UniProtKB/TrEMBL annotation:
Alphabetically ordered keywords of this record: Chromophore, FAD, Flavoprotein, Lyase
GO terms for MF: deoxyribodipyrimidine photo-lyase activity; DNA binding; FAD binding
Taxonomic lineage of the native organism: Archaea, Methanobacteriati, Methanobacteriota, Stenosarchaea group, Halobacteria
Species the sequence originates in: Halorubrum distributum JCM 9100
InterPro entries linked: Crypto/Photolyase_FAD-like_sf, Crypto/Photolyase_N_sf, Cryptochr/Photolyase_FAD-bd, Cryptochrome/DNA_photolyase_1, DNA_photolyase_1_CS_C, DNA_photolyase_N, Rossmann-like_a/b/a_fold
Region feature Disordered, mapped onto this chain: 506-534
The protein's name in its UniProt record: Deoxyribodipyrimidine photolyase
Highest taxon in the source lineage: Archaea
Length: 534
């Protein structure tokens, strides 16, 4: 929704307010630190660079109407989480005796232009984004001379970014954090009348989700500490949606908004966690974070186009809004999918396997266009990260064209991951009366059982919206028919570069050379690669 007519928000700070910041003497102006998704003052490359260059800095966050009005893609709960993170960042600056964070509102180029016109330099951390963010950053660089400082471990400006990639990421992880000395700089601010609360009022932000964690560096550090203490249990907790709730780190929204850097998390775990499988599996997940983010850096089209052009438009001719709506509402008649989709909508979080299951079911079984599903995830996930969500969707759907289709059987997932039905009945309470043995396929529960427990499948809970086995077979045929051409396209240098495979261009050309040779299913199998496969 747009800003309310009662409380319209102007583009602010106004040019006069910025000019009034000028002081007499040597340090007339200084450097604006434009925070975007790096909401911390530690290990922050842009802030360290600004403090190095100037003795006066002004930390700034710009609320861009494009993210908050009807064009915005985030649910209100994610915006509220962002607001927590901003208030926390404001406190971090106050804690070092600074003036706090300056909040602005408007087109970032216009806002930053007012500072540039008054003689301020502007720096920001370089962050991979989609096309909108890229255009915005290009305009900021060209028109205003904004300097983007890299420091996130990703490989930039290399002809073959994937060559020696994991070694480079590893040495970045082992490196010292970016540092600055708050005593050597004045942290200034300007009153703008904007705050997260005012913004929330103006745009009618009303978070409707439950169990959403509190944003900010303090809660993030708490979580990191608690997780490190129980890291030995991590490997056994990843796959089940019940165990994962407490068993995985829960750090994703904090990493998404940069309350902690990936490097800080790595260092903490490296130094404090006991050696073992839990530690190595977790570290490999941090590499996955960088791996997918590198993909978006290498090609911004991941957000809206199939990475392999052969699969562009796949399933488009089958678009059925009723099927999409049933999937979104969690009313497909497949309990594990339905429980997961309702959990996503209500809490904004799902563990990896359930995200993968729902994406696979949507694309392979319902055979619906991938982007609508990916957008729905992106809207509802509190950790919704364009770099991971859309690239993961394309990988799970098989749009890259590499061998090994990731098909998950939703019934098997109930039997394997929720045999007592705890997760399913928590989110699909209408199935609660049914004995757990029938929760994988309620429609097959004998009528006598249904009568005895007082539930009628088809009334209380829907029959499956598709015939699973037939749909799966049909998809395999359709997908398989296009697969050799898709594999071959990976031999094309431009397509191989945008796919940004962990094995680089060589991996892409070897898939092209073997085209069509392998399309083995992964049925709930190893959907994430180990560290040594990078
Ligand atoms: C279809 C789909 C969409 C996804 N969308 C997102 C998203 O928008 N944002 C997001 O952060 N993660 C996304 N993931 C990856 C993964 O599911 C989440 O990172 C994880 O469930 C978050 O919980 P956690 O922090 O407790 O994870 P942990 O298991 O504790 O992992 C620690 C961190 O490692 C990183 N990580 C873990 N798994 C992956 C992975 N498979 N790919 C990339 N990074 C990973 C995350 O930063 C995570 O916070 C998606 C996965 C799928 C299959």
């Amino acid at each position: 929704m747009g800003p309310s007519a009662d409380a319209p928000l102007p583009t602010t700070p106004a040019a006069e307010a910025v000019r009034s910041l000028s002081r007499t003497g040597d340090a007339d102006t200084g450097t604006v630190v434009w925070h975007r998704s790096d909401l911390r003052i530690a290990d922050n490359p842009a802030l360290a660079a600004a403090a190095d260059d100037s003795d006066r800095i002004l930390p700034l966050f710009v609320f861009d109407p494009g993210f908050h009005d009807e064009r915005g893609a985030a649910c209100d709960a994610r915006i509220a989480f962002l607001h927590d993170c901003l208030r926390d960042l404001d406190r971090q600056y106050h804690d070092v005796d600074g003036a706090g964070l300056t909040y602005a509102h408007g087109d970032p180029i216009e806002v930053l232009g007012r500072f540039a016109d008054a003689g301020w330099d502007v720096v920001a951390s370089a962050t991979p984004t989609g096309r909108y963010g890229r255009r915005r950053d290009e305009r900021a660089r060209e028109r205003l001379g904004v300097r983007f400082v890299a420091g996130d471990g990703l490989v930039r400006d290399a002809d073959r970014p994937r060559e020696g990639w994991s070694d480079r990421v590893e040495s970045w992880l082992a490196g010292d954090p970016f540092d600055w000395d708050p005593r050597s700089v004045a942290v200034d601010g300007v009153e703008t009348g904007i705050s997260p609360g005012r913004l929330a009022d103006a745009y009618g932000i009303e978070p409707a989700k439950t169990r959403v964690p509190t944003g900010g560096r303090g809660p993030a550090r708490e979580r990191l500490r608690a997780f490190t203490d129980r890291i030995a249990e991590y490997p056994g907790s990843i796959s089940s949606p019940v165990d994962a709730l407490e068993g995985t780190s829960g750090l994703s929204p904090y990493l998404r908004f940069g309350c902690l850097s990936v490097r800080e998390v790595h260092r903490h775990v490296d130094e404090r966690a006991p050696d073992g499988r839990g530690k190595s599996m977790f570290v490999s997940r941090l590499f996955w974070n960088r791996h997918y983010t590198q993909k978006l850096l290498d090609w911004p089209g991941w957000l809206d186009r199939a990475v392999n052009p052969v699969y562009e438009g796949f399933n488009r001719d089958r678009h059925d809004p009723d099927l999409v709506a049933a999937w979104k509402r969690g009313e497909t008649g497949f309990p594990m999918v339905d429980a997961s989709m309702r959990c996503l909508r209500e809490t904004g979080w799902l563990n990896f396997r359930m995200r993968a299951l729902c994406a696979s079911f949507y694309f392979h079984i319902l055979q619906q266009p991938w982007k609508i599903g990916a957008d729905h995830f992106y809207e509802h996930l509190i950790d919704g990260d364009p770099a991971i969500n859309y690239t993961q969707w394309q990988s799970q759907c098989g749009l890259v064209g590499r061998p090994g289709l990731r098909l998950y059987d939703p019934r098997k997932q109930v039997r394997d991951q929720d045999p007592d039905g705890e997760f399913v009945t928590r989110w699909v309470p209408e199935l609660d009366p049914l004995p757990a043995a029938h929760l994988d396929a309620p429609e097959k529960a004998p009528l006598a059982v249904q009568r005895e427990v007082g539930i009628e499948i088809g009334e209380a809970y829907p029959y499956p919206v598709v015939d699973y086995e037939a749909a799966r077979e049909e998809f395999r045929e359709r997908y398989g028919a296009a697969y050799p051409a898709a594999a071959e396209r990976l031999g094309d240098d431009a397509i191989a570069r945008r796919a940004s495979l962990s094995g680089g261009l060589d991996a892409a050309s070897s898939i092209a050379a073997d085209h069509g040779e392998s399309d083995a299913d992964v049925d709930g199998g190893p959907a994430q690669t180990d560290l040594d496969e990078f």
